[in-house]
Design brief:
The chain is of the alpha/beta class and 512 residues long. 42% of the residues lie in helices and 14% in strands. The strands form three sheets. Strands 4-10-9-8-7-5-6 form a seven-stranded mixed beta sheet, sandwiched between helices. Strands 1-2-3-13 form a four-stranded mixed beta sheet. A hairpin with a 2-residue loop joins β14 and β15.
């Protein structure tokens, strides 16, 4: 409208008694001719801007055009990765050491739901979900709507320091849409951190040490646990001693506690498992009680161990929680893997139904935002004691809000439980049909693992990948999955049929 009124004023000044065209081409004076030329140039320039703006409006709906959801995996190359993938990898490797860890080059524009498309146009059913970080799969409509609304635009343009200059609306969002909906029982205070779940682990361990108010304090972790790759989280991970020797001179301030060796199926081995848990619980109490040279600030535990998918029963965790409370030791639950609905409950430790809530719960990955929920009754620090430069990402916080809305509106916790029960039932049937070639089934919801005896020298991970099923590379003869919350029974059928095929080498029943 401003452009049109400006053009009218120019025309009114130029046109007297002649028509518009006659005035433009008039040769009455050099001044009139120059003025007419500038008027035409200005009109042309504004017209270009209006045209570009109109094209952007037309283009907006097409920016987010993604393929329809795939129905099945589809492998079109003889080898994985295919020729284009290998060529790209060879081109990148000389310039980056990180390239050696790359398994696929993914075309994210062509990926949808629980399937991704690689650079060779192979379609994979992704049951690893980007290291367990995809809550709704690829290119979910919930996130696309968020982008179309422009809700993230302001925050994407600024690297906001939330601890100092927080937007007022975001504070209300955290309170109403995150704390009230997602906070674990008894933990009504949330502290966001920068980056990933590993950073959140660092924050939790730092908080436990500061709260202990003791010099040279350490923290306790469990055998075969894994909590991250940063300094403190690496120290809290009971990985092989050889890996820690690669960082000489650093004093890893952690004590490794025994974790029960659980036998499966749980129903048939309940007596053994109960005795094993009692033995470990007694050893843990003795270790902590006899560690007098340095104070223990906190005990950190995973609801399901990342490295083994192992876990104990509720009495084991209840015993540790009560013992920590009696000793004034922070009890920290690492939910970066099992949180946000992965086990069929919002938080993996909800299965324990503890009589005393944890002191801290760490979250990340599927939540997009990372941080800790803390128990206000046991949290004694001033907020300035644990302040960080940015204290979280507004974009990730808003995405966390959308994820919680999707979990509630689409009843995704029910979906995870239903699909998990479906997988458990059919894997049990396959185990019986194959005389135990599928065994040690464990986990909750769709956060599952099992062992297989394949009819091939290749690993189970490689055999499944050739069939278009991407799983977690847990061990040579182990299959583990941590898919998005949207995994359906129909999609689970592809895994079931592929598993039966690699242990029996029989024609597929579900795989299309």
């Amino acid at each position: 409208q401003r452009s049109v009124s400006w053009a009218r004023r120019c025309v009114q000044e130029t046109v007297s008694t002649q028509s518009t065209w006659e005035a433009v081409v008039s040769t009455q004076s050099t001044w009139d001719l120059k003025r007419s030329k500038w008027m035409l140039l200005a009109l042309f320039s504004h017209g270009q801007r209006l045209l570009a703006f109109g094209l952007r409006l037309i283009e907006m709906p097409f920016r987010f055009r993604f393929p329809r959801k795939y129905k099945a995996p589809k492998i079109v190359t003889a080898e994985i990765p295919g020729p284009i993938g290998r060529k790209t990898l060879n081109a990148v490797t000389p310039h980056s050491k990180d390239a050696k860890t790359i398994q696929f080059f993914i075309n994210y524009k062509k990926s949808r739901g629980n399937y991704f498309c690689d650079i060779d146009n192979n379609i994979f059913l992704d049951l690893e979900a980007q290291n367990g970080s995809l809550p709704l799969g690829y290119n979910d409509k919930q996130f696309i709507k968020l982008l179309k609304k422009g809700s993230l635009d302001t925050y994407q343009l600024h690297n906001i320091s939330l601890n100092l200059y927080s937007p007022a609306k975001l504070v209300e969002t955290i309170k109403k849409d995150i704390v009230q909906k997602a906070a674990p029982k008894g933990l009504e205070k949330v502290i966001f951190t920068e980056g990933s779940g590993t950073n959140a682990i660092e924050l939790a361990l730092k908080t436990s040490i500061l709260q202990s108010k003791a010099q040279n304090s350490v923290f306790a972790t469990f055998a075969k646990s894994h909590h991250g790759e940063a300094t403190s989280s690496f120290a809290a991970s009971a990985i092989s001693h050889n890996q820690k020797e690669k960082i000489p001179g650093f004093n890893f301030g952690s004590i490794v506690l025994p974790f029960p060796f659980i036998k499966y199926p749980l129903e048939k081995n309940s007596l053994w498992n109960q005795k094993e848990e009692q033995r470990c619980l007694s050893d843990i109490q003795n270790i902590i009680s006899n560690t007098t040279s340095v104070p223990i600030a906190g005990v950190i535990v995973e609801p399901i161990q990342t490295n083994t998918y192992g876990y104990a029963s509720t009495p084991f965790y209840e015993g540790i929680r009560k013992f920590c409370a009696s000793k004034g030791i922070s009890f920290i639950v690492d939910e970066t893997e099992t949180g946000c609905g992965a086990t069929g409950k919002m938080w993996g430790h909800d299965w324990w139904d503890l009589s005393i809530p944890p002191d801290m719960v760490v979250f990340g990955k599927k939540t997009q935002a990372a941080g800790i929920f803390v128990n206000p009754k046991t949290f004694s620090l001033n907020d300035w004691d644990i302040v960080e430069i940015l204290q979280g990402s507004p974009v990730n916080i808003l995405m966390f809000k959308e994820i919680l809305h999707a979990i509630e509106s689409k009843k995704l916790l029910d979906n995870v439980s239903k699909t998990g029960q479906y997988l458990t039932k059919w894997l049990g049937d396959i185990s019986r049909d194959t005389s135990g070639l599928v065994y040690n089934l464990r986990g909750f919801g769709t956060y599952l693992a099992f062992d297989v005896t394949p009819k091939s020298n290749n690993s189970a991970f490689e055999l499944l990948r050739k069939k278009g099923i991407l799983t977690v590379e847990l061990g040579r003869n182990q299959v583990a999955i941590r898919p998005s919350l949207t995994l359906s029974e129909r999609e689970a059928d592809h895994l079931l049929d592929a598993v039966k095929d690699i242990v029996q080498q029989t024609p597929s029943l579900y795989y299309i």
